[in-house]
Amino acid sequence: MDKKKLTKKAGIIVDIAMYALLLIQMLIVFTGTTIHEFLGIAFFVCLIIHCIFKRWWLPSLLKKRDTKTPKPRVIFNIVTILLALSIIAMILSAMDVSRVIFPDISLIGSVDIHRYLATAVLTLGVIHGGMHFIMRAKQKKKAIILTSLAAAATLAIGLALVPYMNRHLKKVEISYSETVTGEKAQWNGGKAIVIYFTRVGNTDFEEDIDAVSGASLLRADGELMGSDELIADMLCDITGLESRAITLTGEKYPSSYNDTVSVAGKEKSDSARPEIEPIDISGYDDIILIYPLWWGDIPMPVATFLEQNDFGGKSIHLIATQGSSGYGSSTATIKSLASGAEVNEIMSIYCEDIPESRDMLLEWVKNR
Ligand SMILES: Cc1cc2nc3c(=O)[nH]c(=O)nc-3n(C[C@H](O)[C@H](O)[C@H](O)COP(=O)(O)O)c2cc1C
């Protein structure tokens, strides 16, 4: 094989490797942070090799031509420039996301943008590869339709994955006093208590938890905090009520988000009742129950709490945090388990809105 053909083949292999690496990196929820970051380095190496193979491209853009550049070439060049810019931005934003290889570098100051840039790179990459295919294809119309469909599907899947990835990976830093404290309002009703369940406190977090993929962490003034604990604290600050956490006495949940999802799924299908520290609610009329939606329902330790107590004559007010499923079948489950209780309308809070939900909670308390 002559040198030109060999270089072309090597170039195609590198390009395919880059697509594959990007796709695998989108699966960070399953691969974990460390593998994701090393694959990122591999992508960077492939990119350098790609640029060496295609080193003629940039000078060819600047070259003066006697004839007008054909329209498809102009479009191809625009797509390639956009692709190159988004790859550069994606690599820079990777520094902000990195927890293992570059833990102390922050260039852009936003973690979310990395996921959107990765989606842009993958979509533009599909258009870029598709245009090579269109330029060589005999049936141009078919090739254009196929490329457009592949690009639209990539964009749609990428955008749909971003909230899913945020749910698994997002690490949010807040100031406790700025987030929790503020205007007060009276709880209009009987004697009330806030009961909440959250992952922090019920999870065996590893020492180096920041490097664990899917930790989905919230830090208040640097301290690990559960999202539902934060909601409980906001509500207590607004109303002056006291709160109690539903706490496991036995085995805790694993620190990886995915593993917790598996364990929780099994608990739900087995109708398990994990043991918890008893909470005495006999002296209260109103129970404000805050819980994360797990598998479209209440976490099983919350089921234990509901079954351990007598709710006769009491009112339950529900707040569910969730990653997109509203409140699933949790209200129905609570009604069936908390026998004798009056179960009030539920408020559902999307997990990403939790740090900004104090005003909403204040309105909820005022308008009851
Ligand atoms: C085991 C598990 C299962 C989950 N299942 C769902 C679900 O079915 N639907 C949903 O919208 N969110 C789901 N989520 C997301 C949580 O409801 C959401 O992230 C919640 O705000 C986490 O609160 P926490 O940090 O206090 O535990 C699940 C989370 C976990 C850990």
Structure, described:
The protein has 368 residues and is α/β, with parallel strands linked by helices. The chain has two domains: 3-169, no CATH class; 172-366, Rossmann fold (3-Layer(aba) Sandwich). It has helices at 3-26, 28-31, 33-53, 57-62, 71-97, 112-136, 140-169, 176-180, 227-239, 257-269, 300-308, 330-337, 358-366; strands at 172-174, 192-196, 203-204, 218-220, 223-225, 242-245, 253-254, 286-292, 315-322, 342-350. Strands 6-2-8-9-10 form a five-stranded parallel beta sheet, with helices on both faces. Strands 1-4-5 form a three-stranded mixed beta sheet. Strands 3-7 form a two-stranded parallel ribbon. Helix 11 (300-308) links the parallel strand 8 (286-292) and strand 9. Helix 5 (71-97) packs antiparallel against helix 6 and helix 6 packs antiparallel against helix 7 (140-169). Bound molecules: flavin mononucleotide. The site of flavin mononucleotide has 21 residues, from helix 9, helix 10 and strand 9.
Could you outline the blueprint of secondary structure elements for this entry?
Blueprint: H1 3-26, H2 28-31, H3 33-53, H4 57-62, H5 71-97, H6 112-136, H7 140-169, E1 172-174, H8 176-180, E2 192-196, E3 203-204, E4 218-220, E5 223-225, H9 227-239, E6 242-245, E7 253-254, H10 257-269, E8 286-292, H11 300-308, E9 315-322, H12 330-337, E10 342-350, H13 358-366
Parallel strand pairs: 1-4, 2-6, 2-8, 3-7, 8-9, 9-10
Antiparallel strand pairs: 4-5
Helix pairs in contact: 1-3, 1-6, 5-6, 6-7, 9-13
The structure holds flavin mononucleotide (FMN).
